[in-house]
Amino acid sequence: MARPVRNTVEYFTHDADASSRKTVRILVSRYGANGYAVWFRLLEILCRTDGHYISCRLQEEIEFLGVETLSQSPEQLLEILNLLSNLGAIDPELWRQKTIWSQNLVDRLSDVYKNRRRSSPARPTINGVSTPNNGVSTPNNGVSTPKLDVSTP
């Protein structure tokens, strides 16, 4: 019997010099250790979430993500997510659609998917319109792209 197809991982690399890089230094300068915790908890959540993206359209999703990332408040979490978007750590276009996606993280996970003998999850599609992913996923190349329903509930 074949193993089920998974779009999650249990592990991602955490470089020893991560705290000296731009994103983490800015987060720590503004939010102290909480900024550091939110960022790495967010990466952990992205890794264990199917497709490596998180929807934040509903207030309850932001509330829960705030709890999961140890953020001090939903407002602070939104500030941090806006900063991460401005820094390019999460995709700015998808964040405007209230979806968290980190191409850098997915790129770092590429060896996992190579070992699984398949492609990494593609950048999500919003309302059936494919978003650019450095030419990786287009309507013509047959790459499966997750679709997000962002219609009003």
What are the key terms here?
single chain; 153 residues; mainly alpha; two-stranded antiparallel ribbon; two-stranded parallel sheet; 7 helices; 4 strands; 44% helix; 7% strand
Give an overview in words.
By secondary structure, the chain is mostly helical. Helices cover 44% and strands 7% of the residues. The chain has seven helices and four strands, in the order ααβαααβααββ. It has helices at residues 22-31, 33-48, 59-68, 74-87, 92-96, 103-108, 110-115, and strands at 53-55, 99-101, 125-126, 147-148. The strands form two sheets. It has a two-stranded antiparallel ribbon. Strands 3-4 form a two-stranded parallel ribbon. α1 crosses α2. The longest helix has 16 residues, at 33-48. The radius of gyration is 16 Å and the shape is globular. The chain starts with 21 loop residues before the first helix and ends in a 5-residue tail after the last strand. 21% of the residues are buried. Residues 130-153 have low confidence and may be disordered.
Task: Quote the average pLDDT.
Answer: 83
Low-confidence stretches: 130-153
- Give me the side-by-side strand order of the main sheet: 1-2
- Biggest beta sheet attributes: 2 strands, antiparallel
Task: Give, in order, the helices and strands.
Answer: HHEHHHEHHEE
Strand content: 5-15%
Q: What is the CA-based Rg, rounded?
A: 16 Å
Share of residues in helices: 40-55%
User: What gap, in angstroms, lies between the N and C termini?
Assistant: 39 Å
Shape: globular
Instruction: Report the count of strand segments.
Output: 4
Count of DSSP H/I helices: 7
Q: Give me the secondary-structure category.
A: mainly alpha
